[in-house]
Recover the amino acids of this structure.
C-alpha cells in the first residue's frame, strides 16, 4: 500500500513538475537564441565595420502608393535625423520641461555622454602620445590644458578683436516657421532699398562734382582775357580756293571753314549735298547747280533717233564782221558802206596763208589765181575759190565765199577749219585769206563710270598736233559705240595752243550687268499668243576683258495646253585689232495637242542652232561707214507627229551653210541710211541629215544645195517740227525651195502688222513698211520732272508683203498681204520700252486667216 502511494505521489509530482520543466526549457532555448542572435548581430556589425556594410534597399514607391502609417513613420525618422544632426553640430541637452528626480540625473548624464562619444570621430592612430616632444625640445601641450594661457598676456587696448560673422542658416524654407520666413523677406527688402539709396546718392554726388567742375571752368573762362575778334573786310571778287601741294583745290571740312587773305574771306566752304538730293533738285529744276537742260548729260534726247547728230545743221557759218579797218578798198572802210558795193572791180588772185602774221597789210603783189602757202587746199575748196576770180568783190560776195569755203572744207573730210579775212589793202586785186586747220589738242573723257579713260583715249588714232580728219574720228567713234553698254559723243572745243582743238569724249554708260524681263504677243494659235522673256547682258564676264559681252535669254509661253521652252546665248568679243566676233547658240523645244474629228494628235519639235559671225570694219569716208562679215550656221530641226499615242511622222533635218555680208551706213543732213546685204550658200551633203532626200520629207522640192540672197534697206528722215519718216524694205531671192528656217516671213509686229507672227513664208519676196512719227513728247518734263529722259510718240504706218515660191506646186498661188494702222512708242532712258500697234488688214491674197486685224503689244523693263 505504501509503495503504491509512494508511486502515485511520484507520478503526481512528475505531472506537476512537467509543465515547469517545459517552460524552463523554452526559456533556456529562447535565451540561447537571443544570445546567439546578439552574437550574430555583433559579429555582423564587426564584419560590416571591417568590410563595409551595404546600405538597406531604398523605398522607391511614390507617396500616394504608401499608407498613412508609413508616411508618418518616415516623417518621424526624418525629424529624428534632423534633430540628431543639429545635436551633432551643437550638442546640448534638451530643455527640461519639468522637475526630474535626483535618481534620473545620472542616467541622463550617462546617456548624453554615450551619445556624445558615439558622435565623436574615432581616435587617430597616428596621433602623438601625450608625452610627445616637438623638434624644438618643448613638450606638446593641449590648448585646453590648465595653465596653458597663463604665460600669455592680456590683449592690449589698441588690438582689434575680430568679430566672426554669425553662422548662416542653411535650413530650407520648408523647415522654417512662417515668422522666420517673414523676417528674412523683410531683411532682403531692406537690403535692396539700401542698395538703391546708395546708387542714387552716388549719382547725385557725381552730378554735384560735375557741376562744381563746370562752375570752376566757367569762372576761369570768365576771368581769362578774350582776344579781339578778327575784322574782315568786304570782298567782291571771285572766290579763291587755296591749292594743296599736289596742285588740287583744298576742300573745306564744314560750312564754317573759310580762307582769308588780307583780312578778306575769299573762300567759304560748303557742305556737299548728297547725290540723291541733287538728283531730285536737278529733276525738279533743270538749272539747279548750273546744270541746264542744254547739257547733254542731263538734257532730254529723243531715244528713238539712233544718231543724235543726224539732222543738226552743222553748216552754219558766222558772216565776216563789218568792222572798220577790216578791208581797205575802193569803197573805203566806213560803217555805212553798202554790203553790195564793190570793194575791188576785179579779183585777180587769192593768197592763202596759215597765220595772220604772214599777211602783208600793204597788199600782196603779183599773185595770179589761187596760191596756197603751207595750207592744204582740197580740190573742192580750190573749185569754190576759182569761181570768184575775175569777178567784182563786195562784202556780201566775200561772206558768201568764206561760207562756201568752210563748207567745202567740211565736205573734204576737214570738219574744223576757220577762214579769216584780216585787215589788208586789196586795191591791187589780190585777197589774202588766213585758213586755220584744226589740229588735235588735248583729249578729255567725261562721264565714264565703268570704262577706263585711258582705254577710250587710245581708241582715237589721231595724235596730238595732227590735222583733224572727220572720217578717222567717225570710224573711232563708231567703234566705241558698238559696245551697247555705252554711248560716246564727240565734242570739239577750242584748245589752249594756237590752231588746236580739244576733243571731248562725252560718255554715258549703263552698268555692265543688266537684267531684263519682257512680254510680247508674238505667238500663234497653236502654241499660244503670249510670250514671256527674261535675260541678262553681262559686260566683261568672268576673267574676260571689258569689251566682251555675254548675253542669255529665256523664253516661254503662257498657254496651258501647249509648251514652249527657248534658250539663247550670245557671245560678242570686240577684238583689239578692231574686228569683232559673235557666237550664237540656241535651242527651242515645243509640244502641242490638237483635236481633229475627235481624234487627238500630238505635235512636237526640237530646233537647235549654232553659228558665228566675224565682222571686219572697212575704211570710212566722212559720214559713210562700211563693214564686211563672214559667217557659218549649223541648224537642226526635228518634227514629231503622234496620232492616238502612235508615232506617225518623225523626221530630222540639218542645215550647214556659209554666209557673206556687206553692211553700210550713210549719215547726212536729213537723216541716216542703212543697207545690210547677205549671201547664203549651202553646199549640201555635209552631214547625215543634210541631203536632198531628207529635205524633201519636210518640204516638197527642197534641196540641200542652195543659194539665196537677202537685202534690207532702212531710211530715217527728219522732218520739220521734229517729226520723222521711217521706211524699210526687205527682199530675198532664192534659186530653189528652202526649208522654213531659211524663207522670208511676213506678218507680225516687225514686218506686216495686223497679221499673226510669220503667218506666211516664201522663198522669194518683198516686205516693205512706211511710218510717219509725230514729235516726241516728254511725259516727265510735262509733269514737271526734268531728271528723267523719256519720249512718247505716235505713228501712222502702212505695211505690205509679197511672197512666192521658187518652185511652186501645182495650183500654188502667190501671196500678198497689206495693212494700215496706228501705234504708240514710249521709252524711259534705257530702263523701259513699250510698243503698241493696231493694224487693219487691207490686202489678203493667196490665204485666209479669218481676221480683220489685230493688236501688237510688247514691253521690256531693264534693271
Amino acid at each position: 500500500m505504501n509503495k503504491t502511494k509512494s508511486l502515485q505521489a511520484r507520478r503526481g509530482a512528475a505531472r506537476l513538475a512537467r509543465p515547469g520543466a517545459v517552460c524552463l526549457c523554452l526559456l533556456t532555448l529562447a535565451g540561447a537564441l537571443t544570445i546567439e542572435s546578439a552574437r550574430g548581430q555583433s559579429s555582423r556589425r564587426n564584419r560590416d565595420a571591417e568590410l563595409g556594410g551595404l546600405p538597406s534597399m531604398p523605398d522607391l514607391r511614390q507617396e500616394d502608393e504608401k499608407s498613412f502609417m508609413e508616411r508618418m513613420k518616415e516623417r518621424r525618422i526624418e525629424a529624428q535625423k534632423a534633430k540628431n544632426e543639429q545635436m551633432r553640430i551643437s550638442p546640448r541637452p534638451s530643455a527640461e520641461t519639468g522637475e526630474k528626480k535626483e535618481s534620473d540625473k545620472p542616467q541622463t548624464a550617462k546617456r548624453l555622454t554615450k551619445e556624445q562619444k558615439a558622435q565623436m570621430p574615432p581616435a587617430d592612430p597616428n596621433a602623438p602620445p601625450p608625452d610627445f616632444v616637438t623638434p624644438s625640445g618643448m613638450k606638446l601641450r593641449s590648448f585646453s590644458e590648465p595653465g596653458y594661457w597663463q604665460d600669455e598676456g592680456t590683449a592690449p587696448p589698441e588690438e582689434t578683436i575680430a568679430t566672426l560673422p554669425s553662422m548662416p542658416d542653411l535650413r530650407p524654407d520648408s523647415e522654417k516657421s512662417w515668422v522666420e520666413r517673414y523676417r528674412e523677406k523683410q531683411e532682403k527688402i531692406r537690403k535692396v532699398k539700401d542698395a538703391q539709396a546708395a546708387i542714387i546718392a552716388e549719382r547725385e554726388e557725381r552730378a554735384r562734382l560735375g557741376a562744381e567742375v563746370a562752375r570752376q571752368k566757367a569762372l576761369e573762362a570768365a576771368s581769362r582775357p578774350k582776344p579781339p575778334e578778327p575784322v574782315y573786310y568786304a570782298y567782291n571778287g571771285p572766290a579763291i580756293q587755296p591749292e594743296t601741294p599736289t596742285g588740287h583745290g583744298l576742300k573745306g571740312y564744314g560750312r564754317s571753314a573759310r580762307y582769308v587773305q588780307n583780312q578778306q574771306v575769299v573762300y567759304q566752304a560748303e557742305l556737299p549735298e548728297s547725290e540723291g538730293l541733287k538728283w531730285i533738285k536737278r529733276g525738279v529744276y533743270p538749272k539747279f547747280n548750273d546744270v541746264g537742260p542744254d547739257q547733254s548729260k542731263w538734257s532730254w534726247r529723243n531715244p528713238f533717233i539712233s544718231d543724235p547728230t543726224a539732222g543738226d545743221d552743222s553748216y552754219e557759218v558766222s558772216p565776216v564782221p563789218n568792222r572798220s579797218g577790216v578791208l581797205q578798198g575802193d569803197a573805203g572802210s566806213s560803217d555805212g558802206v553798202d554790203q553790195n558795193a564793190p570793194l575791188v572791180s576785179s579779183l585777180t588772185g587769192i593768197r592763202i596763208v596759215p597765220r595772220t602774221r604772214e599777211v602783208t597789210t600793204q597788199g600782196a603783189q603779183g599773185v595770179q589765181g589761187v596760191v596756197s602757202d603751207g595750207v592744204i587746199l582740197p580740190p573742192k575748196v580750190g573749185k569754190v575759190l576759182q569761181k570768184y576770180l575775175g569777178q567784182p568783190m563786195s562784202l556780201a560776195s566775200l561772206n558768201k565765199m568764206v561760207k562756201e569755203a568752210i563748207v567745202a572744207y567740211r565736205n573734204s573730210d576737214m570738219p574744223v577749219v576757220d577762214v579769216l579775212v584780216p585787215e589788208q589793202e586789196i586795191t591791187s586785186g589780190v585777197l589774202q585769206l588766213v585758213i586755220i586747220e584744226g589740229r588735235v589738242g588735248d583729249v578729255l573723257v567725261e562721264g565714264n563710270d565703268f570704262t577706263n579713260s585711258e582705254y577710250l583715249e587710245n581708241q582715237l588714232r589721231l595724235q596730238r598736233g595732227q590735222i583733224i580728219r572727220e572720217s578717222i574720228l567717225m570710224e573711232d567713234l563708231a567703234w566705241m559705240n558698238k559696245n551697247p553698254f555705252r554711248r560716246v559723243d564727240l565734242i570739239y572745243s577750242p584748245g589752249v595752243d594756237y590752231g588746236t582743238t580739244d576733243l571731248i569724249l562725252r560718255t554715258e554708260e549703263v552698268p555692265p550687268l543688266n537684267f531684263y524681263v519682257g512680254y510680247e504677243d508674238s505667238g500663234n494659235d497653236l502654241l499660244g499668243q503670249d510670250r514671256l522673256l527674261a535675260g541678262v547682258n553681262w559686260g566683261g564676264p568672268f576673267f574676260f576683258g571689258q569689251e566682251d559681252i555675254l548675253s542669255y535669254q529665256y523664253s516661254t509661253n503662257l498657254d496651258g495646253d501647249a509648251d514652249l521652252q527657248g534658250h539663247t546665248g550670245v557671245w560678242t568679243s570686240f577684238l583689239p585689232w578692231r574686228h569683232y566676233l559673235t557666237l550664237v547658240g540656241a535651242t527651242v523645244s515645243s509640244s502641242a495637242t490638237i483635236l481633229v474629228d475627235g481624234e487627238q494628235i500630238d505635235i512636237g519639235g526640237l530646233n537647235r542652232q549654232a553659228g558665228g559671225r566675224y565682222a571686219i570694219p572697212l575704211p570710212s569716208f566722212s559720214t559713210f561707214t562700211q563693214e564686211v562679215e563672214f559667217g557659218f550656221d549649223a541648224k537642226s530641226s526635228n518634227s514629231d507627229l503622234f496620232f492616238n499615242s502612235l508615232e506617225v511622222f518623225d523626221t530630222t533635218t540639218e542645215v550647214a551653210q556659209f554666209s557673206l555680208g556687206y553692211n553700210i551706213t550713210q549719215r547726212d543732213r536729213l537723216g541716216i541710211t542703212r543697207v545690210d546685204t547677205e549671201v547664203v550658200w549651202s553646199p549640201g551633203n555635209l552631214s547625215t541629215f543634210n541631203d536632198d532626200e531628207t529635205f524633201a520629207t519636210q518640204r516638197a522640192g527642197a534641196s540641200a544645195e542652195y543659194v539665196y540672197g537677202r537685202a534690207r534697206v532702212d531710211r530715217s528722215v527728219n522732218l520739220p517740227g521734229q517729226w520723222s519718216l521711217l521706211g524699210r524694205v526687205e527682199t530675198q531671192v532664192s534659186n530653189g525651195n528652202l526649208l522654213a528656217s531659211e524663207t522670208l516671213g511676213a506678218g507680225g509686229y516687225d514686218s506686216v502688222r495686223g497679221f499673226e507672227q510669220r503667218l506666211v513664208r516664201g522663198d522669194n519676196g518683198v516686205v516693205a513698211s512706211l511710218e510717219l512719227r509725230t514729235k516726241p513728247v516728254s511725259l516727265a518734263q510735262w509733269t514737271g520732272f526734268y531728271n528723267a529722259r523719256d519720249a512718247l510718240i505716235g505713228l501712222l504706218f502702212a505695211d505690205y508683203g509679197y511672197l512666192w515660191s521658187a518652185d511652186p506646186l501645182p495650183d500654188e498661188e502667190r501671196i500678198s498681204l497689206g495693212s494700215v494702222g496706228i501705234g504708240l512708242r514710249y521709252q524711259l532712258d534705257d530702263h523701259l520700252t513699250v510698243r503698241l500697234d493696231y493694224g487693219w488688214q487691207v490686202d489678203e491674197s493667196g490665204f485666209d486667216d479669218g481676221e480683220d486685224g489685230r493688236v501688237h503689244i510688247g514691253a521690256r523693263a531693264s534693271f
